Amino acid sequence: MPVLVPPCYNRAMNETPEAKKAVFRRLVDIYATGDLAALEEVIAPNYVGHASAGDRDFEGFRQSIRHFHNLFVYEKNSFVVEDQFVEGDKVATRMTARVKLRATGEPVTLIGINLAQIIGGKIVEEWNTWEQLQTPQA
Fold it and tell me: Computed from CA positions of residues 132, 109, 67, 22, in that sequence, does the dihedral angle turn out positive or negative?
């Protein structure tokens, strides 16, 4: 599937490892705030995401954000990027999310690993997995 690149796209500036990391970090900020309109800044129209719940397209990603914002309360700094590595057009990110269950206010800590293919300053494909850390039982 061809990647759509805007005509004013500056390949030299937007294809550096730091620029690719910044694209993913912007996605994390968008996710935390639930700013669905801003997704177009970082997600390609032909986006494909792979998660344990199955594959999703751009609209499916929007629905996923809505779903998780209905379950959890997010703060702007809910996500902490612990590590990021770039190899070619892929960015690997290890992160921690600290959120609260919307129904009870109980804190929840999740750890996630994401591999995002970034071309033309946009995420065109990604693979991710999340795991909830268990709190020690008293």
Answer: negative
Please name the amino acid found at residue 128: N
Q: Phi then psi for 92, rounded to 5 degrees?
A: -100, 130
* Cα 17 versus chain centre, distance: 17
Length in residues, the chain: 138
DSSP code per residue over 2-59 = PPP--TT--HHHHTSHHHHHHHHHHHHHHHHHT-GGGGGGTEEEEEEEEETTEEE-HH
Instruction: Please state the pTM of the whole predicted model.
Output: 0.84
Which residues lie across from 86 on neighbouring strands?
91
Structure confidence by residue, pLDDT tens digits, 30-70: 999 999 999 999 999 999 999 988 999 999 999 999 999 99
Q: How far apart are CA 58 and CA 56, in angstroms?
A: 7
CATH class of the domain at 11-132:
alpha beta
